[in-house]
Specification:
Blueprint lengths: L3 E2 L7 H18 L4 H11 L5 H9 L4 H13 L2 H4 L4 H4 L8 E2 L2
Parallel strand pairs: 1-2
Helix pairs in contact: 1-2, 3-4
Length: about 100
C-alpha cells in the first residue's frame, strides 16, 4: 500500500492526535460490517481529495494526495479484505497507515 507522507503541522500534539483520530475512524468505518457506515466513509473519501479531506490531512500533518491514494486503495478492496483495518485487529498502532519522515 501507499506510504503516507508527513508534512509540518500547524497545531499542537493534541490537535494533531485529534485529527489523526478522525482519519483512523474513517479507516475503521471502511472495515465495518455495517454497509451504511462503509458507504458514508467511501463517499467522504471520494474519487479525489475533497477540501474537507485535505484539511483534515493538513491538520494531522499528512500530505493529502498520498493519504488519499492510501484510502482510495482501501476503498477498492473487497469488504472482507478491509477487515485487517478494523480497530480490533490493529488497535491504534497505525500499522495500516504509516507516516513517512522524521
Amino acid at each position: 500500500m501507499t506510504s503516507v507522507a508527513r508534512m509540518p503541522s500547524r497545531g499542537g500534539a493534541g490537535e494533531v492526535d485529534l485529527w489523526g483520530a478522525v482519519l483512523w475512524q474513517v479507516l475503521t468505518d471502511l472495515a465495518l460490517s455495517q454497509p451504511a457506515l462503509r458507504r458514508d466513509a467511501e463517499r467522504w473519501i471520494g474519487p479525489r481529495p475533497s477540501h474537507d479531506f485535505a484539511l483534515v490531512c493538513a491538520l494531522c500533518g499528512l500530505e493529502p494526495d498520498p493519504a488519499h491514494a492510501f484510502f482510495a486503495g482501501v476503498c477498492a478492496l473487497p469488504w472482507e479484505a478491509r477487515r485487517i483495518f478494523s480497530s480490533g485487529n490493529t488497535g491504534r498502532s497505525g500499522r495500516g497507515m504509516r507516516r513517512a519522515g522524521p
